[in-house]
């Protein structure tokens, strides 16, 4: 009886497959998931003294696996070095310095501090490497002994951590423009202080102030953050940020403290005295003095009326009697994305030649913007100053905590400012030059806002 050809071919194919399987088993037998796992030596003293601080752990896996590597002490406490880390078939080496994932001890004294990495206590440990086949779920395990001695290293604790204010407005208005971070480091360590954006993204690292304590030294460390505005950079977008302070010592122990900070109304302020395409940028005119204009700290005088005469747009020298008023008018524009703060006295205020803003109860305020008038013979720069509007033209904001009232010119808005100085003194230089400036107090008088609209002013004795 003849065997059908199909059966003959099927039998031959099965035989070939059997031979291949047997050959593969003989040439490459089914290996365990972990084929090697050993420490270079069995005793380490992880104290960063350069002597037996680390031991190298070598292991080999034959398939794609997840590995977990733990240490169990004599009391039964288990410490994790790796947890379910994915590994491809290969040889691996890792330097172990006794530092594992963070854990707490009963005598830890800083509950607000997160311990990220820590040296395990001195003990005789059973190490355990567990590999799980990523495909089948099969498991393999190797164990051994490692002794930790002389490794009682204190954590680089951040014992003090304060942030003030936690809500700040980096816009150079002089009110909560910056936040200060004050921390105390208990041991020498590398410090990193950074902001995490609310919607992810790269950390924003803060620079430490140069103080008595050197970087990385035990002691007090200060960070003063203005969002970069003082360096003419745009601050981070408004929002709620997580502020992180991390310290890592030479052994590799790492701790973290954190706080929440909020950035509001952040931005670089820009304003200018508006340049005119026709006529002068700063209008000057003269008017007779009247006693009703006299002002002091306790007795505000009448405000002078805003100039309206079209003939005052000329650039010619002004000749005026001694004792009369030199009146000015100009326009200021806030062309930034943030409100700019201003302070009094309000437009229309009249100064005596010898008066200053403090005479009228309006002292210089850091971060405030004001228009100033200066003259060649003035004893200080811009002695006469005015706000960029009054309460009916500005945004008036009351601080809910202090009750202090602040006034702002909104973004994109313009303000007309005017006022007068009584010219009562004939100086050696006659005529002299007077001009305007836009002053960002205790910040700058920018070049574009300095010495704007200069005019010659000649004083004459009306009785001569």
Radius of gyration: 39 Å
Structural class: mainly beta
Q: How far apart are the first and last residues' alpha carbons, in Å?
A: 153 Å
Shape: elongated
Helix content: under 10%
Low-pLDDT segments, ≥5 res: 6-10, 20-28
Total helical elements: 1
Q: How confident overall, as mean pLDDT?
A: 91
Q: How many beta-strand elements?
A: 31
Strand fraction? 35-45%
Number of domains: 3
Key terms for this structure?
about 5% helix, mainly beta, seven-stranded mixed sheet, Immunoglobulin-like, 1 helix, about 475 residues, five-stranded mixed sheet, elongated
Helix/strand layout:
Blueprint: H1 5-27, E1 34-39, E2 43-44, E3 55-61, E4 65-72, E5 78-87, E6 90-96, E7 99-101, E8 114-119, E9 123-133, E10 139-148, E11 158-164, E12 167-168, E13 179-185, E14 190-196, E15 204-205, E16 219-225, E17 239-248, E18 254-263, E19 271-273, E20 283-287, E21 318-321, E22 325-334, E23 340-342, E24 350-352, E25 369-375, E26 384-386, E27 395-398, E28 405-409, E29 414-422, E30 432-440, E31 452-460
